[in-house]
Amino acid sequence: MTADGCRRFASLLAALVLCACASSPPVEFYALEPVKVRPLEAAPAPPLQIARVHLPPSLDRRQIVRQAGQYGLEISDRHRWSAPLDLMIRRTLSEDLLQILPRGRVVLPQEPAPARTRKVVIDIVRFMPDPAGRVELQASWSEMSDDGVSVPSSSIVNVRAAMASPSYSDQVAAMSEALARLAAMIAAKSG
Fold first, then answer.
1. Treating both helix axes as pointing N-terminal to C-terminal, what angle do 85-100 and 168-190 enclose, rounded to 10 degrees?
2. How far lies 189's CA from each of 30, 91, 139, in Å?
3. Rounded to the nearest 5 degrees, what angle is found at the Cα of 141, between the Cα atoms of 169 and 126?
4. Phi first, then psi: what are they for 129, rounded to 5°?
5. What is the DSSP letter of 113?
């Protein structure tokens, strides 16, 4: 191939790449956010810290996941989380708990935990929209004392939050609402 032919081929290849990129829809990023919740009148108790959130492998990814039929999943390359989902859940639950519990009762995930802090560990089984258009959060949570021993308050929860529409932004809003409800359950049981 001649030098002129190589330049034409390279120009054609560059034009094809630009056309392909121009036709791809942009990637959209989403974040879970705390929801306005009512404070709880709670008796004095040791502080809480959301220590860990465990996700099933199907949700432990940057792409947003939805159910597709009875046994399928839709994993969107175009709609993604702005950060790892487990870390966003941990932060959102902590911020929800800050609104619910009295001052000094919540230790943020990045803060060192004082003595007697109860660490909350959450195991999520399911966290996505169901076919009826509601986000379903199935999880268990338990409190561990600062010496790593589980204390009696462990629970299995199944929370549903309605989506205003099938859009991804409404899915994320409903997921944030489901987390606020979980935070209220944790606060009520641990206080």
1. 50
2. 30, 20, 15
3. 40
4. -70, 145
5. P
Helices (H), the chain: 3-23, 85-100, 168-190
| The total number of structural domains that make up the chain | 1
* Strand 134-144 to 118-129 pairing: antiparallel
Q: Name residue 89's amino acid.
A: I
Return mean pLDDT, the chain.
86
- What percentage of the chain exceeds 90 in pLDDT? 60
- Rounded to 5 degrees, φ, ψ at 45 are -155, 165
**131 pLDDT tier (thresholds 50, 70, 90):** confident
Cα-based angle 52, 56, 62 (whole degrees, multiple of 5): 85
Distances from the Cα of 122 to the Cα of 155, 164, 173, angstroms: 10, 27, 20
pTM: 0.83
The 3-class SS string of 47-58 reads CEEEEEEECCCC
The whole domain housing 31 covers 3-190
Relative to beta strand 150-162, strand 134-144 is antiparallel
Q: What is the CATH number of the domain that holds 170?
A: 3.40.50.10610
